[in-house]
Amino acid sequence: MNIRIATNQDSDDIKRVYLSTFPKGESEIVAKIAIELLSENTTPQTISLIAETDHSVVGHIAFSPVKIDHNEDCQAYIFAPLAVQANYQKHGIGSTLIKYGMQQLSAMGVNIVFVYGDPNYYERFGFNADAARNYITPYNLQYPSGWQAIVLNEYAMEKVPVAINCVASLCDPKLW
Ligand SMILES: CC(C)(COP(=O)(O)OP(=O)(O)OC[C@H]1O[C@@H](n2cnc3c(N)ncnc32)[C@H](O)[C@@H]1OP(=O)(O)O)[C@@H](O)C(=O)NCCC(=O)NCCS
C-alpha cells in the first residue's frame, strides 16, 4: 500500500470510494465534501491523503485546520471524512491513513486534532471525549459522544468552553 497527497485529479476515485462505503443518501453528501476539501485554500494547509493498492485508490482521509475563538496560538485540525473501500477494510488501511496524517500534523507543531465519529474506533488512536469537552462545535451534534480530540503537542488547554470554526466544506449541519 502506498499513501500520497490527493489532488483534484483523484476526485473521481475518491467519489467512488465514498459512494461504495457509506449508506445511500449519506454517501453523496460525504463524497461531495471530500471532493470540495481538495480545493480548500487554507493557511495552514488542508491535507487530503489517499491510500493506493495495485495503483487503485482504496482509501481517503482529509485533515483541515480549525480556528479556536480567542486563541490564535493553538494550532488545531479536524479530520473528516475518512473511508476505506469495503473489500479492503480490516487490513489496517484506515489506521495507517490516520497515523500517517497525525505524524505530519505533529511534526508541523499542531497542538490538538478533533474527530467526530465512533469512539469505539477512534479511542484506539488515543482520541477521547475529555480532550474535546471545552470546544463547542459549529452545529449541534446528533451524537455528542462522538466528539473527541487528541493533544499532539502540549499547550494551555481551554478551561472554559470556546467556539471552534471549521473550513467552509465542513460547514454543513447534515455532517454534525
Ligand atoms: C472506519 C473505517 C475507515 C476503518 O477502516 P479500516 O481500514 O477497515 O480500519 P483498520 O483496518 O485500520 O481497522 C479495522 C478495525 O477497526 C474496527 N472498526 C472499524 N469501524 C469501527 C467502528 N465504527 N467501531 C469500532 N471498531 C471499528 C474493525 O472492526 C477492525 O477491528 P480489528 O482490528 O479488531 O479487526 C472503515 O471501516 C470505513 O470506511 N467505514 C465506513 C465509513 C466510515 O465509517 N468512516 C468513518 C466515519 S467517522
UniProtKB/TrEMBL annotation:
One Pfam family in the UniProt entry: Acetyltransf_9
Signal peptide positions (record): none
Domain (N-acetyltransferase): residue spans on this chain: 1-144
Domain of life from the UniProt record: Bacteria
Protein's recorded name: N-acetyltransferase
Organism: Candidatus Competibacter phosphatis
Lineage of origin: Bacteria, Pseudomonadati, Pseudomonadota, Gammaproteobacteria, Candidatus Competibacteraceae
